[in-house]
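FIELD: query
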Amino acid sequence: MAETNQPHTVSYSQDVKGWPSFYSFLPDYMAGMNGFFYSWNGGNLYRHNTNQTRNNYYGVQYSSTITSVFNAEPMMIKLFKTMSYESDDKWECTSLFSDLNTGSMLSTYFEQKEGEWFTYLRENEGTVEWRARSANGIGVCVNISGPPTATVIEFGVNIGSILSVGDLMYWVVPVAPTPGNPNPPSGAPTLGGPVLSIVRQSSTSVGGVVTPSSITVDCSGGTVPSIGNFITAIKNSVAESHGARGYYLNFTLKNVNVNAVELFSVGGSVMKSYP
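FIELD: result
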């Protein structure tokens, strides 16, 4: 079957009286003779279905894909937690999207359980969703020191336990409120880098030396913030995945096996989404 973003050949089935399949080959001409299917490409004649290698057309090897949708009770927003399929080979979920979420799942994510291939739905690596619970504010930066690879950001407040090493630090430039706009929107968050270590509470030594709460961040792949910037952090999108929400869930499965593969059914765990 053809990749959905590539040109393809559409076949008609007399049994279903429709166009159920899309093929990757793009012939110059096609003909059926004596029970065989022939096509021409680049002036060469090819006879199809002559060997056991699947999806090889004119010397180019393609993959098999199938696209479908979970859309039971289309007027209700649902939470899609898992996906499973019955097949004699592993498939990769190359595309997964609803009206609210996007994602994908490698074939290695699927594990065989009770005769089915099963996985929990995950967000794409690097997905940043500021409306999710995995995004949390830390505080205003009061001092900065250290090199970009180990930037120490100090705060005037204690740091809550929800922040973890490995979270990605972002910063924004606060916008001062005005009488006509008491809650002005801030600018887009700028990536700083991963959090390396955390000092959650300020402390005072016997000699009176104050150690403020702080985080150490590797900003070598991002931008170092400035004093007065508001610091926030977001957790790993794959680890914090809780499924996909929406009215429907569209998915595309892909298989690269050159031998015959059967896909019997695709299902998942779906429930009503409660805000």
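FIELD: remark
Residues 9 and 23 are 5 Å apart (CA to CA).
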